[in-house]
Design a protein that fits this description.
Length: 210
């Protein structure tokens, strides 16, 4: 089954995500779906029960990767939009991230967490309040932070990428970082993920009392 439908404390994981997004004032959600995506759409439907408007963008016959999926979904998106992963629960105030985005003149913004290779391999160099480099593929000793899982982007940054081509969002974020076009927003609370058995256990323990 899709990870989004894994049962966490008696409910599909995506149920927890969507209810928390609505609680944070989000009104519209675009789900980028690939393999078995129809099962997710069948469960979520229009999003009415979450007080959300949910729309769907499918990869199609060819998987597009996280970056390619967003590129395909651009006609459904506003000029500025949040991006988060389908297997992460982020217990934070989304308005704080958005206000930082506005304060920084709507520069693409990545939330980061001081991880020190604890929850996963750190992938961000962040020093003196500046995000110097995000690199998912090349680990460096001075990488103390990790991509927390929530970013605010704008449609323009995808202009140079072709449609229906498979590429990873990490390529886009790396390119922005080395051009000094990516703001880092540190988060103090850890994230939760369901991409592993340990992650599922930790997520259930957290959400049980959330």
């Amino acid at each position: 089954m899709p990870k989004a439908l894994i049962q966490i404390c008696g409910k599909p994981f995506i149920d927890w995500q969507l209810r928390y997004l609505a609680k944070n004032g989000i009104q519209k959600v675009i789900l980028c779906l690939g393999h078995m995506g129809k099962d997710i759409e069948k469960y979520v439907e229009s999003g009415d029960r979450y007080n959300l408007k949910v729309e769907y963008s499918y990869d199609g016959s060819k998987l597009l990767g996280t970056g390619g999926a967003i590129k395909k979904a651009l006609p459904l998106l506003d000029k500025h939009f949040f991006v988060l992963y389908g297997d992460s629960f982020l217990p934070i105030d989304y308005s704080e991230v958005y206000n930082a985005f506005l304060k920084n003149k709507k520069t693409p913004t990545m939330t980061i967490y001081k991880n020190n290779n604890n929850l996963d391999k750190s992938n961000v160099i962040y020093e003196n309040n500046i995000l110097i480099e995000y690199n998912k593929n090349l680990k460096k000793p001075n990488m103390k932070y990790i991509d927390y899982g929530l970013s605010i982007l704008n449609t323009d940054i995808f202009n140079s990428y072709k449609k229906n081509i498979n590429f990873d969002l990490s390529e886009v974020m790396y390119d922005l970082s080395i051009k000094n076009k990516l703001i880092g927003f540190p988060i103090n609370k850890r994230f939760y993920e369901i991409g592993s058995h340990d992650g599922i256990r930790d997520t259930e323990l957290f959400l049980k009392n959330f």
